User: Fold these one by one.
Assistant:
Number 1:
Amino acid sequence: MKIILLYGGQSAEHDVSILSAFSVLNAIYYNYYQVQLVFIAKDGQWVKGPVLTEKPTSKDILHLTWSTNGASGDFTGTAIQPGDIKEEDAIVFPLLHGPNGEDGTIQGFLETIDMAYVGAGVLTSACGMDKIMTKYILQAAGIPQVPYVPVLKNQWKENPKQIFEQCEGTLLYPMFVKPANMGSSVGISKAENREELQQALEEAYRYDNRAVIEQGIEAREIEVAILGNEDVRTTMAGEIVKDVAFYDYNSKYIDNNIVMQIPAQVPDEVQEKAQEYAKNAYIMLGGSGLSRCDFFLTNKNELFLNELNTMPGFTQFSMYPSLWEKTGLQYGDLIEELIQLGLNRYKQRTNFLTDVK
Ligand SMILES: Nc1ncnc2c1ncn2[C@@H]1O[C@H](COP(=O)(O)OP(=O)(O)O)[C@@H](O)[C@H]1O
Ligand SMILES: [Mg+2]
């Protein structure tokens, strides 16, 4: 069977995706699979690369070169249209993070061309990526989260004073202001007063017309990994130990001043609660395949669900695979499980659709 590995992408996490792809290529069971590389360049161009039948020796293989104007040369890939990836007897592994990768758009495209794929479906991806939708769903499920105020750009433009009053009536400074549909901490800022709140909103609206303002809290950050379709499994909790108060883009990807602690040093009840909330949130969001569920934990052991990432960082050293590894599922076996889950969901969906005809 062929795995079509889609990597790169147009989001801020382009480089993270390449690292994840290299890890996956090193762990796939080549006695069952061959891997078709398909790279999405930063400008959105899709590029078909080589088919691998064994582990690559170097990361260089992922950095494809191609021509879009028919020029001849020593290219390692060919510019293609997205629909050209369609093949029988293949499953797509969309190893893409952020907008246009993790937000349901790629997933919808893969449904449209009738291909099996790894990971969450359209609804879960779209809702998991959208911070306002996630909050509404968590609220409906009765899962604790920090207080928040959703604010559309138009509402802000029309009456900033009313928005200030609404925020200050509901929340205390510091507040966290976030574009609803981003990721990687892009466009997120912390506001200590009205002036900063104004700046933070202007910044958020550079990325989205919808923003959410949250109660800022001092908290540890703990995460639980989830795997499964109908049968949902969770891991022990892990902690992201920061030496910075705000886990922003630089600390996530550039400074690397983050340490993972697995298992998280938390009381058993906290861990069990985190697993229960993670599982319920996943089920409410219609999860399939995988997700990483992130929480805030205060020093009074209050737990607040922050978000579900439907395509979490997936290098061998990332939190999601590390949590499974500590739970007894090796990286290669984890990839195999994800492929089987993707195939099962595809079969099930195909049956639902044909039963209707
Ligand atoms: N309400 C909050 N209180 C305190 N810190 C927060 C809050 N919201 C976000 N943060 C900090 O900002 C980081 C990024 O926010 P998050 O909601 O996880 O966005 P992203 O989707 O970009 O990962 C978090 O990991 C945390 O360090
Ligand atoms: Mg986050």
Number 2:
Amino acid sequence: MGLAAIYLRLSRNEEHLDIDEILTNHRNALIKLSKQQKLTYDIYQEISSGVNTERPQLNLLLSRLDDYDALLVMDIDRISRDNAHAEEIKKMLILHDIKILTPQGAIDLSQESNEMLFSFQAMMANFEYKQIRKRLGRGRLAAAEQGKWTMSNRIPLGYKKNEDKRLEIVEDEAKIIRHIFQKTLERVSANEIAKQLDMLGWRSRQGKVLTSSHISQIRKNPVYYGVIQACRRVNGRVVDEVFVENAHSGIVSKQTFLEVQKMLEENSQDKFFHKLKATRRLQNLIYCNCCGRKRYLQCDGNGVEFIKSCSYKIDNNVCQDRGHKYLSIEKFVLQKVKERKTDFEQALKKLKSLDTTDVEKKLAIQRESLNKQLEKLNKRQRNLKEMRMDGEITKNDFYEMRDENEEQIRQVQQQIELIDIQLENLSNTDEEQQRLEDTIRTLDKLDELESEPCNTFLKTFIKKIWFSSNTEANHDTTRERKAATIKIEWL
Ligand SMILES: [Zn+2]
């Protein structure tokens, strides 16, 4: 049996969460891990405050490295935020042949590939905001589980947050939400509902006009029938999800909400409303650089395509940005898009240089051995039943051994799940490589692409194209035209 050092560190930055509770959770997780690994342990823990970089407990631990076989931490970044320091500690750990264990897996520094992993993770940990978000994520998820509103400060229209951090209906706003759901059930389009709300003078909390896109978001949001949902992502992948019904009073009933979802689903399949197809390459991508509204495309009587002049009117503010011939704009944008090719090629090269085969191999071996463990445990479970049936063990012994065995099965299954997640994360870079390769290939034959697939392709990396003709629309056609503005906002 080996001896482990458990190192726990929390920073004061996390104080709006219950720091004692987090510390207890972390400690329990690591004690559990040491038991799984059949290690006895010493605990070192400290709470650091922002600027203070002194870590007396860590230093004490490092001075006793001779005593230990393993170091148990929650995240690798708990050891040190500072790259040079991390590097120094790493050398000390290698010298003393100490393994690092985290609930996410083991890191054996004597193996080169792991050394790479350690450096890589320590580097990642330096992106402090990422880690803070991750930790916040855990606390946020726990609060969401209790039905509390834990998302950004933007509380959904129709609600306010009470002292208990739960959502409470604001009747004045709730009537807007009810109207939106009711009218949707009557098959009124989002556009039409927006007009009605505007006429009623019903605005957002900031006094702004509610647009059809607001309305589309509102009627898909389950918060309105009493749901709190939250998720935690690691590397963009959802690793934990919370969905609590009856967390607060709904503004609409669950039935109404579900009916509306069904209707919207049918709507998206073109059964109820006519949906415009992309007939031009830049369809739905051009926005007014003066007022921010979408710009529309049109064909004139001679078959020449135009960006229509902007005539957005709200209260006394009128945008009158003049129209422009469309094709020259399209040509300009496509040229800019082609120039992005080198960017994509560089990104691809960078991805390819991140070789993950070693890590992959190691994970596969771990998985294999866990599978064997699982087989063994399942067999033991069957044997226990037989022994009990044959009267070889007492009922109490049976229950005790069975529970213990089941607990072990559960733990092994969890470890297997974790490895599967890690493996999948690795293969995500494969997908990203594939995506970049496809993009580069498509760029090469961009001119041959039909309007619609081209439009879809452009939307995968262009967010908006900001356009202005920089001329006011009026009937004087003799004026000299100024150069147009075209800015591409990349995703
Ligand atoms: Zn405009």
